[in-house]
Design a protein that fits this description.
It contains nine helices and 21 strands. By secondary structure, the protein is α+β, with helices and mostly antiparallel strands. It is elongated, with a radius of gyration of 25 Å. The two termini are 33 Å apart.
């Protein structure tokens, strides 16, 4: 403790060089905290998880867990000697063991006698709602049940760091919803650090206290789920949040000159380099130039149309490019087919501008 602050349980600077790819990410996770490492495929999420688990050595940097150095220049603690539990995407349960003995594996590796290890395992199976499936083997379990057994096995070893690698990716929508609720409940009682690796924004938003977004091996944004969705800083994050996002420069006169071309009137008092964001639902489309209050009106060409829930998402080329959500009836009435010319309008009061 220093100056009233508490050191994070996990303090890591992960640098891994692999062919033409370089991961360079700093991560901290506190006791009882759940941090989501979110990013597109190829961003480096799995590489980060493997380095933390001891399955891949760092090229540079350092991993410190609960005050102990696990990986740095001259030091490398192998995976089986780290107090790290991992739930892999495909669970990797032992096929010849029952659910109970799969969960008991961790305590047994710590030196517990068989009876004590199985007692610990039974308690964990009960916590994840699978006490009645203790004798079942992995091929007798559903996907959601197998995921919960894998989670119980990881936690039964009392890890200081729990790593979850896309834990819900292999489940169907209904099972994912139920399992996410169980996972959230269990993680709330875990006193160690938890790192959730995912490309699913909903998993990150529901399960994590804090989100770290990485792209191309670098951290591009970090914050609470609310901070991430309210103020996205890259196009990738904006798409996750369901927003149109632009970068530009404001001279403080209520207008932002966009880097990609075009101008937008904003309602926020900002100057200098800024981001401007607004939801697709804020974009109104018209056959002819609209009258009335919108200060942001420009010509655009329909570039693509797709179904989006009970709405239609229209992608438009222009200055700026924009995504708009309209009803199916409006899409039909406006004849929104690729190549169609329309007017796009957004009220300044619907925009949100903030420093870049």
């Amino acid at each position: 403790m220093d100056g009233g602050t508490v050191s994070p349980l996990l303090d890591a600077h992960l640098v891994v060089d692999r062919h033409r790819f370089r991961l360079d990410v700093r991560l901290t996770v506190g006791s009882g905290e759940v941090v989501a490492l979110l990013g597109p495929n190829g961003a480096g999420k799995t590489t980060a998880l493997r380095a933390l688990a001891g399955l891949e050595r760092l090229s540079a940097g350092e991993i410190v867990l609960d005050g102990s150095v696990l990986d740095s220049a001259g030091t490398f603690v192998p995976a089986h000697h780290r107090r790290v539990g991992v739930v892999f995407q495909d669970y990797l349960l032992f096929p010849h063991l029952s659910a109970l003995d799969n969960v008991a594996f961790g305590p047994r590796c710590q030196g517990y006698r068989r009876a004590r290890a199985r007692a610990v395992a039974a308690r964990w199976l009960d916590r994840v709602g699978l006490a009645d499936r203790a004798s079942a083997r992995p091929d007798e379990l559903s996907g959601g049940q197998a995921q919960r057994v894998a989670l119980a096995r990881a936690l039964a070893g009392e890890p200081r760091l729990l790593l979850l690698d896309e834990p819900l990716a292999a489940l169907d929508a209904g099972t994912r919803l139920r399992t996410r609720v169980t996972l959230r409940h269990v993680l709330a009682t875990h006193t160690g650090a938890t790192l959730l690796v995912t490309h699913d924004p909903l998993d990150a938003m529901v399960l994590a206290d804090r989100i770290v977004v990485i792209e191309d091996g670098r951290v591009v944004q970090t914050g609470t789920p609310l901070e991430i969705t309210k103020r996205p800083r890259t196009r990738y994050v904006a798409r996750l949040a369901g927003l149109n996002l632009y970068r530009g420069r404001s001279t403080g006169d209520g207008w932002v000159d966009l880097a990609g071309g075009g101008r937008l009137a904003v309602d926020d008092d900002v100057t200098g380099e800024v981001f401007v964001a607004f939801p697709p639902a804020a974009v109104a489309l018209h056959r002819s130039r609209p009258d009335g209050s919108p200060r942001n009106v420009w010509r655009a060409t329909v570039d693509g149309v797709e179904r989006y829930g009970d709405r239609v998402r229209v992608h438009l080329a222009g200055e700026p490019e924009v995504a708009a959500d309209v009803t199916p009836a409006a899409a039909s009435e406006l004849d929104l087919v690729p190549g169609a010319r329309v007017w796009a309008a957004v009220k300044a009061t619907e925009t949100h501008a903030y420093p870049a």
